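Exercise 4. Each item below gives a protein and its sequence. For each, produce the structure-token representation.

Item: tRNA pseudouridine synthase C (Methylomonas koyamae).
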Amino acid sequence: MYLNNPLTEIYRDLWLLAVHKPAGLLVHRSPIDKHETEFALQYARALNGGEHVYPLHRLDRPTSGLLVFARDPQTASTLGKALMAGEVRKTYQAMVRGWTPEQGLIDHPLRDEPEDRRLKGEPQPEREARTRYRRLATTEIPVAIEGHPTSRYSLIELYPETGRKHQLRRHMKHISHPIIGDANHGRGRHNRYFAERFGQGRLMLAATEMVFAHPATGEMLHLRAELEDSFLRVLSVFAG
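Answer:
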């Protein structure tokens, strides 16, 4: 349970509120986690003086980083349309298994993943999904995890061009570079190694930047969120 507001305010004006969401916090109620009572939405409302806010996008529960809310319905509508039109540029950072190419485009359609478990057996349509990525760093540690004497990892930036559910996690699995800490699409041995080494497990995926035209002024707004401490601790394997 959070004793204080876990959100860190990054930006605020008359129309927008941007915050950093920690890993482990749901954005809003979900049929998958009916028992949960704490959500980023309620904490953002507290930052907004108790007034209603409108989440413009979502971050998965285990993903940390930049989360943007509109402070009125018209702003929410305007930016929602911009998101649907691909006019909002998002950047994520992730630590993945193996050494990725220096850059690439993953163009791989994905089937919808319904939140309601009752719908999981029904066939879902495939929808186009594209993710660009760029490698920032590589490391090789002298630890045998899957039969090799050493283990390799990459730190990458991800730029989703579409917004499918779990797109980044599923796309990285598709190219055989799963994100560390991903319980559903990752590699269990690597996840367990880092959870044991650093005393806790976390998904190594963070939303770090968003760029879009301000819905009221039209000027380009560039929002950034710092990586949280639990993410930076795991990145220490890239030092030296």
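Check: Residues 109 and 129 are 5 Å apart (CA to CA).
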